[in-house]
Amino acid sequence: MSDSAYLIPAALHRAELVISRSRFIATIAPAATPVDARAFIDAMRAEFPDATHNCWAFVAGPPGDTAQIGMSDAGEPHGTAGRPMLDVLLYSGIGEVAAVVTRYFGGVKLGTGGLVKAYGGAVQHALETLPTTRRVERTILAIQVGYTDVEALRRTIQECEGELLSERYEERVHYEVALPVDMLDRFSGLARDRTAGRAMLRRP
Questions:
Q1: Same structural domain for residues 125 and 148?
Q2: Which of 32, 63, 93, 197 is least surrounded by Cβ atoms within 10 Å, i.e. has the fewest?
């Protein structure tokens, strides 16, 4: 696996807990950017307009990265919902992720400690069954080779976890390939070695 790869949510996912008669519905979604996260949060508010609270948190970046994060207690006592939710997300090993915990109050007050445990626990409960996929930071490379080097180049693309985006056959063969960023040096060296320097590589 490429070192630049990390796990992200594969799709929207939901799990529910009932604690002292209150329902805590945790919904997890992919969020590559803060804009994505806020759109998801707005959608959850629209889906559960009658909820007592729709608390949220997001990490719009690699796992544990705090450059683009957000959280809200959404009317719960300060620090009892958004922060524990965010802490769970930051230490989950999953990136580009947003969570909304929807609460329907059941008539029994939980106290600040109980709320922290409930909101953090609801997110953790949902993460335990969250379907994930691998996200790899990639760069685009334009390649030209002669027809005799096509087989060697295709083998190199496969070995370096590249994705062939387009191919064009003219006097030479033109490829556009998406490569994991940390495979670029290895790919460049192998491609030149295997084609005796005939492969032409450039960033578009």
A1: no
A2: 197
